[in-house]
Amino acid sequence: MDIPHQRLVYFRVTAESGSLRRAASRLNIAPSAVSRQIALLEDVFDAPLLERTSRGMRPTPTGEMVLDYCRQRSALDDEFIARLEAQQRLEAGTIALVVGEGFVGDLIDTPLKSFAERYRGIRLDVEVAGTDGIIEAVVEDQAHIGLMFHERIHPQLRFWHSSEQPLMAVCPPGHPLAGGEAPLTLAQLAETPLALWRPGHGVRTLVDQAFAEAALRPQVTLETNSMAVLRHSVLAGMQLTILPRFAVVRELEAGSLVARPIACATFCSAQAHMITRVGRRQPQASLRLLRHLAEWMRAFRTYSS
């Protein structure tokens, strides 16, 4: 059933004012025009909507239903407009992010904390995933923004910002490879028990590539999909691991872990990336967060200095 909005407006004003003449005055049109529009509306419902009484015009039973519908529709319109204006003022809305686990600590401590403090009405939905999961979530519009390590070519990905983040050898201060000024070699690492991400993770892809190019086979004694497992296995002195510096920045600042550079071109050129889907129209809040995160990623460089 097609119910023109303007006719509903004429009917509601007439029903609430109790007079065609008063309704016409409020609407700034002729009474005959109001009467004609209401008559057309009655044709749609196949029932009279207004009746004349000694106190003026009042809705019929069908008219009461239509008047209630008009009020509900108006309330929905008002609510929608208020929500839309709040979103445009960055006072409401949800931004979905999907990130590699190594980003989580510094991401929450620094950019998300400051963004949430500034835009308190914005809800942040943060999921953790591996590289494949991050790409899928962004491409399938399950997330507005993705943060991943190691570039993966995909026709539907837009790279908003990339930051060089060399892979480092991470170990406890008492480890035999913790000291010295010269970068570690892949040959040295190949003789050391390693804890690594499972195959398919962006960091693991680079590690496997580097050792394969050097014709070396690393001693992988622990594989996991958990950053916490990697961190604790290294803190316990079980293995050495290979990670970007930002992934363990808290432990490095506390002195519980040490990050040593590695003489490997593949590791030195590694990058962190912020991605969205090509062609997706980002809401205003998401665009603001993209710019905010880009500034944070530029600061990544201080971590490798």
Automatic annotation (TrEMBL):
<dbReference type="Pfam" id="PF00126">
    <property type="entry name" value="HTH_1"/>
</dbReference>
<dbReference type="Pfam" id="PF03466">
    <property type="entry name" value="LysR_substrate"/>
</dbReference>
<dbReference type="InterPro" id="IPR036390">
    <property type="entry name" value="WH_DNA-bd_sf"/>
</dbReference>
<feature type="domain" description="HTH lysR-type">
    <location>
        <begin position="1"/>
        <end position="60"/>
    </location>
</feature>
<dbReference type="InterPro" id="IPR005119">
    <property type="entry name" value="LysR_subst-bd"/>
</dbReference>
<keyword id="KW-0805">Transcription regulation</keyword>
<keyword id="KW-0238">DNA-binding</keyword>
<dbReference type="GO" id="GO:0003677">
    <property type="term" value="F:DNA binding"/>
</dbReference>
<comment type="similarity">
    <text>Belongs to the LysR transcriptional regulatory family.</text>
</comment>
<dbReference type="GO" id="GO:0003700">
    <property type="term" value="F:DNA-binding transcription factor activity"/>
</dbReference>
<protein>
    <submittedName>
        <fullName>LysR family transcriptional regulator</fullName>
    </submittedName>
</protein>
<keyword id="KW-0804">Transcription</keyword>
<dbReference type="InterPro" id="IPR050950">
    <property type="entry name" value="HTH-type_LysR_regulators"/>
</dbReference>
<dbReference type="InterPro" id="IPR000847">
    <property type="entry name" value="LysR_HTH_N"/>
</dbReference>
<dbReference type="InterPro" id="IPR036388">
    <property type="entry name" value="WH-like_DNA-bd_sf"/>
</dbReference>
<dbReference type="GO" id="GO:0005829">
    <property type="term" value="C:cytosol"/>
</dbReference>
